[in-house]
Structure formats: C-alpha cells, structure tokens
Fold each of these.
Amino acid sequence: MKADYLRAKHEAGKRYADYTATGTEQQQGDWNTIYDQTSLTEAQTALLGSFTRKINVIVVSGIWCGDCVQQGPLIQRIADGAPQAIDLRWVDRDEHMDLQEQVRINAGNRVPVAIFCAEDYEFVSWFGDKTLTRYRAMAAKNLGGACPMPGAPVPQDEINATLAEWLEHFERAHLLLRLSGRLRQKHGD
C-alpha cells in the first residue's frame, strides 16, 4: 500500500464519535457499553505516554459487526491514552472495499483490521480481525464460525486480555517507528 493511498484513506476516515454516530441508537449503545467497561491500567497508561513517534492508524470496521463492537472500543481506548502519538481514524468496510480487499484474512473480508502507518503514511503493519484472546473465547463457546451478537455481554477478564493484546500491536508499531533508521535520521535521535 502506497503512502498517498493510505493518507487519503486516513483523511477520509472518521473520528470515533463520528463513526459510532453512523450506527443506530442500539449500535451506538453497544459500542459505548464496551468503551465504558474498558480502562487502561497505570502501566498501560505510562507505556502509551512514552510513545514519541506519531502513528497514523486506520481501522477498517463495521458498526454492525459483533467483533468490532467488542474490540473497536478497546482500540479507541488505546488511542485515547496516547493522543500525542496516535491519530486513529475509522472507515466502514463496505464504503472502502478497495482497502478491505487489501487486508483480507483467509480470503474473507474480516473486521476489525487496524492498519498502522508512519507519520508520513508509509505502511508499517496491519493486524486483525481478532486477538488470540477473542479466538480462544469464541472457540470455548462454540468452535464455529459464528460472529458474536452485538450487545452480548463480554466478561471483564476477556476485555482486559483483549485490550492488552491490541496494545501490544500498537507498541510494536511504535517501537518499529522509534527504531526506524529513516525516522531516527529525520528526527536526529
């Protein structure tokens, strides 16, 4: 993915409040319930506060998607913990199918998918559609291909573990950018 393309997608993306406002009242409530149930630990807050490189993040999502409802608010909580470094935007999968097709998983249009970019929109990495914690929870419940229903209760330990796993991907992207020879030369550090 080229930097100009990713810049355009990022600029076309919505901030969290604007993105969730595209949903029905029930969908907005489902997203807000998980967001309100989520918090960062002191260690996670300190880690995010240490981020010095800007990370532009595009999340391909569906406001209707159960996995997005259960993980999207966690991704937003991480971004809220590092406003100095993370510029997070949300794009609807169906409205940005050209982007979705570039991040297909197992030949499927899975969401959510987070695309991590450098400050100049150079591609860094992408991750989705579920963390290992989410896959384990789904396997334990049904071992099927079913998507969780939006609004279904999520155990707090599952939220905490999923949040930690998403944070690892943000930290990985930040460290990749922080240690980048190209960016270290640019910033003189």
Note: The longest strand covers residues 55-61.
Amino acid sequence: MKTTINRRTFLKTTAVTTAGAFILPRFSIGQAGPSANSKINIAMIGAGGIARLAYDGCEGENIVALCDIDRRHFPEWAAGKGTPTYSDFRVMLDKMGNEIDAVCINTPDHTHFAATIDSMQRGKHVCTQKPLTHNIWEARTLRKAKDKYGVVTNMANQGHTNDGIRIMREWYEADVFGQITEVHLGINGPNWDSRFFKKPVQMPLEGQPIPEEIDWDLWLGPARETAYNDIYHPLTWRGFNDFGTGQFGDWFCHTGDGPVWILDLYDPIVVECVERGPCARRYDSRL
C-alpha cells in the first residue's frame, strides 16, 4: 500500500510513538536545516531483488544512498541520478548518517538482524523485509532495541497490504465464519523449478570463482565461512538454513499472516511436527 507522508507527519508520528524518548533529528521543527515539510531521506541496504517493492513503496521520498554487495544491482537504480553507492552498510551509515532518516533492509534473511540493529543503534528508523530475523532470539532483541533507541520500526510483508486480508477480517468480525476452532493452511512448495529455489546435486556445494562484482565476505556477514556458489547468490539462498528460513520465512509469512492477525493469535503454546519429507535429509548432510 502506498501512503503519501511528509517529514512533518513522519516526525510527529515518531514522537508520539516513542512517548518522548525519541530526540528529533537536527532538521526537525525549530532547528536549523531543511524544512520539516521536506521528504524523508531513505537508504536502501540491498538494492536489488525484493528491493523493487521497496522502491515502489518509497515513491515520492528521497532515496539518498544504495548499499549492496553486488554492484550489478546499482545501474538500474543509481545510474544518472548521482545516488551514492556502497558495498558495506556500516561504511554507508558512518559516512552518510546525518543525511539518512530511515533505512529499508532488503538483504537475505541471515543479515537482516545485523543491518537492522546497527541502523537502530544509530537512531535510524527501519523497515526490514520479512521474515524479520533468522531466529527467535534476534526478533526478541530487536523488539527491545526498538524501545531502547526510540525508533519507528516496520516489517515489510507485501501480502498484508492487500485488500484480501482486511476483507477476511471483516468477514470474521461479521461472524460470517461462525466459531472457528481450527485453521488449515499450506503451500505446495518448495518449487524447485522456480527462480527462488534450486535443487543442489550435492552438499556441500562445490566452490566457484567469485564474480568480480560481488563482495562475498560481506554477503556472508555473520554466517560461517562458505565457498561461493551461484546457487547461493543471487536469489536462491532461501533453501539453505545458514542463510534462509525455507518455507517458514518465505510463504508461511503470508499464509500464516491471515489467521494470526484475523484471530488475534499470539505466541504458540505447542508446536508439533506431523510430517517430515525427504528433501532436507537428502540434500543437506549437515542436518
């Protein structure tokens, strides 16, 4: 969903949300600097892939910096615009911190936490793609950090912005379904023929030469040392536990979003595995 928002509205909402804990930036009302009615300055960490949706959602604002470990993503979004580009988001935040209001994080799952917490510690508002983190501890830590650093946070889940989920909520509140006691949901994946998953022929994957446009060390980030293979990058990292969260972090964020939000469900009491397929055991010797 696209929403028009100016800097004044953004900062006012921020101040209310953080109950006075947030110190307005240097360019806010009553301080020197650009007008409070100017646009929000946004930096992208991850300039390709799912970032395409982020660019659409930020239409009308200022994209002031792009960061990506793969320089091949820059020409489409930065060419001719003079937008500064970086491979390391820490360097970007160090050099341009005073010019950035908010950060949108569009990286693989395993680097969501590092990029998000670093941005929050620097007082930047964050929008991080789903799944928010790679594990539960990271999610709980970010929830604490939001309050500590007084920033506005958001998890980007494009499915939640569509009308379908709100219509279902209206049906539920109108008692169209009656008493709901059980919900079944699922997805017939992973689809090994899709652009998001590639079936490996062996594990561990054989190392390949690293393309000169890619900073592989930065792509790995907090993950363990792993040789480059084009099945990991670009795009098909999600099927490997070191980097992605499989179908839970992919489609479950969409299929599970409906019942959780509509029925006001919270932390589960019991989680039970009722079936385990052969794919993980066959293709990942580390499991």
Note: The chain has two domains: 7-156, 164-287.
Amino acid sequence: MNNSDCGYCQGGEYLAKFGIKICDLDVSQLILFKEQSKPGRCIVAYKDHVSEIVDISDEERNRFFADVNRAAKAIHAAFHPDKLNYGAYGDTGCHLHMHLVPKYKDKDEWGGVFQMNPDKVYLSEDEYAEMIEKIKACL
C-alpha cells in the first residue's frame, strides 16, 4: 500500500519537510526528525501505508515494536537522555509511526507537556549527518 501524499511512503521532498531517513529496519524505516530541540529525536515508520496498529498482524506488530526497541536502544546509547518518550499520533498523516522523543532534565519541557514541533532547533547538513552516523553506530 502507498499514499501519494505521505512523506513516509513517498520519501524525497515529502519526507524532507520534516525528516531525514537514517536506514531501513526489519519492517520499518528509521527517520531523524529535523527539529532537534530534543537531541536524538527520531521516528520509526512502518513499511506499509496502514493507519492503525490493529491493521497489521500480531507478528508484524511484534516486529514493528522490535524495530522501535532497537531504535530506542540506539538513541539511549548515542545521546544518553534521562528519559525516552514514545508517541503514536496520526490524525493528520494516517501512516503507522512512532515518535521517539529523548527528554533531558536540563532542557525545556522536562516534566511538562510535549510539543509536537516546537520549531526551535534546526541543524546544518553536517550536523544532521554527524547525528545520523552516531545513531547508526549504535544500531
């Protein structure tokens, strides 16, 4: 399945609006979220254009959560957050995905409400590349 307006399905300029593909995992892709006010924030997006976790088999769900776990371990190893939050949203972009949001006690929002896109911190291409290599080294 595929959706012509979906950044996860189309990649390229659609994905570039909010993220950079890091790599393919077992049944998903790992994406670096461009807004990096929470260093190491990523998205794990399921390989097919399905809206809900209930739209895939139990086996696929388990494989998807194994991908989430693998990505979470890499983020912990690379960036040492105090906490990693997990968010599954999709009312506007109905593609099964999970946000992995590192939280740091010395940063804003600790103990507060999560902002989907605070639109505060964007990096240079070199800084994104360095961050991606750091994550890949820990996968």
Note: The mean pLDDT is 93.
